[in-house]
Each structure stands twice: as C-alpha cells, then as structure tokens.
Amino acid sequence: MRIPIIAGNWKMYKTHLEAVKLVQSLWYEVSDVSGVEVVVCPPFTALRSIQTVIGMDKMNFKLGAQDVYFEEEGAFTGEISPLMLKALHVDYVIVGHSERRQYFKESDQDVNKKVVAILAHGMRPIMCVGEPLEIREKGQAARYVEDQVVNCLQSVPEDRLGDMVIAYEPIWAIGTGRTASPEDANEMAGHIRRIVACIFSEPGFQKIRIQYGGSVKASNIKELMAGPEVDGVLVGGASLSADEFARIVRYRE
Ligand code: 13P
C-alpha cells in the first residue's frame, strides 16, 4: 500500500511571515484528515519558521525544500546543503523541477547528484521529470521521460526506493491551466514505474511513489487521483490558497 502524497510547491512566493499564516490556515482546514501525507515546500527563507510552527502546533505536515546543492559544505556562494536542510528537519526535497532545468540550466547529471545526496542525508527526494510540448506533439514523451528517469536514478540504492517520489510534471501543463488528462497522467505514471522495475531487481518499484503535477486544482484532483498508478500530486499555484489546497487534500470526500 502506497500512502498518497500531496505536496504544495510554493515556488518563489510568500515571505516567511506570509508562509506562517498560510500553513496555519491550512492546518485549521485539514487537521482532521488522515491517510494522506501532506508536504509543504516553502522557499528556503521560510523553512525555519515553518519548522517551528509545525513543531509547536504538532501539525501533521511534512516539511519540504524546493532544491538543494549536492555538496555538504564549501565555497559555493548562494547554495544550501543537505546538512543544512536536515538540521531543519526537512523531510522531502524537490529536485529537477522543470523551472530549475529551464532557467538555471540543471542537467539530469546535476539532478542525479542531488538525489543521491538527499538520500545519503536521510531525506526523501521528489524528483521531477516531464516533457516539453514539442516533444509531446511529436509522440516522443515516453522516451523523453524514460531518459530522464534512467539518468536521474543512477546509483540510487535499491533499498531506498520506498523513500523516492517521482513527480511527472509535463512542462506544458505547469501554470498553464492545461492539465494532462487523467488517462495520460496514469499512463505515464505506469510507464515510469515500469522503467524503475527494469532498473532495479528487487520489487522496490512497488514502493516508489509517483505524483502528477501541472495545473492540479480542487476541481480536477479527484479524477487525477483515480488512476491506480498516480500516488499523489505536486501542486503549484493552487497550493498558495489554504482553501483551495485544503480541498485538494480532502479529495476523497
Ligand atoms: P502549477 O500547479 O501552478 O501548474 O505548478 C505545478 C508545479 O510546477 C508544481 O511543482
């Protein structure tokens, strides 16, 4: 049984004060929900505050970061290390988001180093993959995503697959209001799981969780989560509103 995982990627929104308000409003609305893992991923500057509030109010939320550098420490101005995140009780780290790949030129190799570093420090990667529109239109999405998954999972220990989350986020669906159909999302999630099954020998592929991301809203969450291969969602814009995100978390009602 894979526990559904609903993560909010707040991207570069919310000061630490706004972030505290948001997480408190969200908790007010979903504190009675069980059986779903909820992850909030604020910007780095809000991690400490959110960690404190989650701990103080015993909120059943996991803390996530939006990126990390793969070295433990050193002269890497502007970067944040896995050690620093672990010290803040960060549980999940998003890596390889298409915005990082596009604007900050991250390669699969960079993403792979980060995935390995996150696992080595006892945290759990939310590893993003997904194709641009022109690749989808050429019918090459499955192959494109396959390359990303294979490249980014190099040297991942088999016994840690249960700690891995892969988020399938087609680039054309991010922030566009255009969602992948539930059938396409489920099909790609199944495809990703089969790729993982080919790489690893133990049945760990049954444990890996696969999310869909891209214009997820309260109005489409139910049908997206109905796909048996879809274990959760990675939500951008809709996670910035406590009401909307709470409705997403309560998708089973
Ligand atoms: P939107 O939900 O705003 O489309 O963003 C998706 C995303 O990029 C989550 O990481």
TrEMBL record:
Catalytic residue positions: H97, E169
Keyword check for Cytoplasm: yes
Pathway: Carbohydrate biosynthesis; gluconeogenesis; Carbohydrate degradation; glycolysis; D-glyceraldehyde 3-phosphate from glycerone phosphate: step 1/1
UniProt keyword annotations, A-Z: Cytoplasm, Gluconeogenesis, Glycolysis, Isomerase
InterPro entries cross-referenced by the UniProt entry: Aldolase_TIM, TIM_sf, TrioseP_Isoase_bac/euk, Triosephosphate_isomerase, Triosephosphate_isomerase_AS
SUPFAM superfamilies: Triosephosphate isomerase (TIM)
Enzyme Commission numbers on file: 5.3.1.1
One Pfam family, short name: TIM
Gene3D superfamilies for the chain: Aldolase class I
Subcellular localization(s) per the UniProt record: Cytoplasm
GO molecular function terms noted in the UniProt entry: triose-phosphate isomerase activity
Catalyses which reaction(s): D-glyceraldehyde 3-phosphate = dihydroxyacetone phosphate
TM spans (from-to): none
Binding site for substrate: N9, W10, K11, G175, S215, G236, G237
GO-annotated biological processes: gluconeogenesis; glyceraldehyde-3-phosphate biosynthetic process; glycerol catabolic process; glycolytic process
Enzyme category, top tier: isomerase
Complex formation: Homodimer.
Function of the molecule: Involved in the gluconeogenesis. Catalyzes stereospecifically the conversion of dihydroxyacetone phosphate (DHAP) to D-glyceraldehyde-3-phosphate (G3P).
Family designation: Belongs to the triosephosphate isomerase family.
HAMAP family: TIM_B
Full protein name: Triosephosphate isomerase
Name of the gene: tpiA
